[in-house]
Each structure stands twice: as structure tokens, then as C-alpha cells.
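step=encode ok
step=design start
structure_in=
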């Protein structure tokens, strides 16, 4: 399918800005070598409105439509690193948004399943990623429910702020699997890294504070 999105070129200037973005992440020790290599391959400026072209590689979140934002590069690097993706793993992402994080997971070798609840973004992101040569499995639906028919997953990554840890997502983890989710009822969330042990019990680590757009509940589809 052809994308209706006008994609800019990946010029030397943008490649240079991307290398600088990665160098900054390295200096701050956010991410790891595999994640930096993956992020180097994904032209972040393709995922933003033309108006932001020159800021595309600064450590900022930007509006992507439907009141949502593309996560900051440092957040993508951080979450990708603690998710510890191994090539070939089945990863469920909640909150496709622009598809930037989705592509980073694909570049890490994951088989990615991603859910988005905003129809406008779901409709836009699928054909756009296709046009870049990426083929994740994208779903329009409710991240709180996960994808029981496609699970269980090795890893689950939530890219919106959840008021609590949805049990459905924990249930869809394989034994030994990891769920990375920012949790908090207000504007600030604490990153949680939750491991399901072989006996099915849970080990939970609370990490740094972040600010994500909220993981919304009880949305009437088609609104
Ligand atoms: N990973 C995205 C981040 C987008 S922001 C990127 O790199 O661009 C978080 C996304 O989560 C938004 O697109 C928002 O619409 C979506 N979201 C919010 N609540 C959700 C839910 N219950 N299920 C699925 N997606 C949800």
C-alpha cells in the first residue's frame, strides 16, 4: 500500500544529527550498544511532522496527532535497554503511536505485535511503516486487554502511563518473560520492570520516574 505521508530524505545532515543523538545517549549512559545501533538505523525525522524536521534529533517528545506524542529518544533508549530484547523474541507493544519505538524493536530483531487505541494513528502508522519496509503486526484495540489470541509473549512494552499493572498483560507473559510498564495514577509514572518467574510468580523492580501520555481506559471505539 502507498503511504500518503510525504517522507523527507535521510540526508547526510540528518544522519549526522542522528549520530550526535546517539553520542549524547552514550555520554548519558542511557541504553546499551545494541539499542544504540538499532536507533542509528531508524531515521526519527521520518516519524515527525515536517515542521519539526530540524529538532527531530533533540531529546524531546513531539505531537503526532490525536493528542498523542512520539516518545523522547532517551525514553526509547531506556525502555528498549531494560526490555533486553533477544533476536527472534515475540514482543507486544502497547501504544504504537508514530511507530518509532516499534521500528527500534524490529531493528533489535524482535517479532513485534503492537496495539494502538487511536484509530487515526492506527490508520496512518501501518501504511507508513510498510512504506519504510517494516512489517510489524499492528492492531487497533485496547492495550489493557493485550492480545490473548497471539500470546504468550517473551516481552511486553507499554509506552503510555498506566494507572495500574493490567493483570491481562501479566497473564500473557511467558514464564521468564518481562513486562516494562510506566505506572502511576498522576502525571508522573515510575518505570516498573516485572519478571514472570518459571513458577509463575512475579518479581517487580521499580526504576526511574517518567512522564508519559496516559494509557486510557473505557474508550468507545470509533469515537
Ligand atoms: N511508542 C509510541 C509512543 C506513543 S505515545 C511512539 O514511539 O511514537 C503512547 C501511545 O499509546 C499513544 O499513541 C496512545 O494513543 C496509545 N494508547 C493510549 N492508551 C492506550 C490503550 N489503552 N491501548 C493502546 N494504546 C493506547
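sequence_out=
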Amino acid at each position: 500500500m502507498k503511504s500518503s505521508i510525504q517522507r523527507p530524505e535521510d540526508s547526510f545532515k540528518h544522519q549526522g544529527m542522528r549520530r550526535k543523538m546517539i553520542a549524547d545517549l552514550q555520554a548519558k549512559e542511557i541504553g546499551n550498544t545494541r539499542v544504540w545501533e538499532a536507533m542509528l538505523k531508524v531515521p526519527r525525522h521520518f516519524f515527525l511532522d515536517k515542521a519539526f524536521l530540524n529538532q527531530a534529533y533533540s531529546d524531546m517528545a513531539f505531537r503526532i496527532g490525536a493528542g498523542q506524542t512520539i516518545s523522547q529518544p532517551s525514553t526509547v533508549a531506556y525502555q528498549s535497554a531494560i526490555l533486553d530484547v533477544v533476536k527472534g523474541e515475540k514482543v507486544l507493544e502497547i501504544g504504537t503511536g508514530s511507530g518509532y519505538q516499534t521500528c527500534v524493536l524490529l531493528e533489535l530483531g524482535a517479532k513485534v505485535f503492537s496495539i494502538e487505541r487511536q484509530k487515526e494513528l492506527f490508520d496512518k502508522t501501518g501504511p507508513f511503516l510498510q512504506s519504510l519496509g517494516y512489517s510489524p503486526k499492528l492492531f487497533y484495540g485496547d492495550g489493557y486487554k493485550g492480545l490473548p489470541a497471539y500470546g504468550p509473549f517473551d516481552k511486553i512494552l507499554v509506552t503510555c502511563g498506566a494507572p495500574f499493572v493490567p493483570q491481562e498483560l501479566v497473564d500473557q507473559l511467558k514464564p521468564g518473560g518481562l513486562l516494562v510498564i510506566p505506572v502511576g495514577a498522576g502525571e508522573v509514572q515510575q518505570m516498573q520492570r516485572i519478571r514472570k518467574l518459571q513458577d509463575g510468580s512475579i518479581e517487580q523492580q521499580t526504576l526511574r520516574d517518567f512522564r508519559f501520555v496516559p494509557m486510557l481506559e473505557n474508550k468507545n471505539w470509533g469515537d
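step=design ok
step=annotate ok -> The chain has a mean pLDDT of 93.
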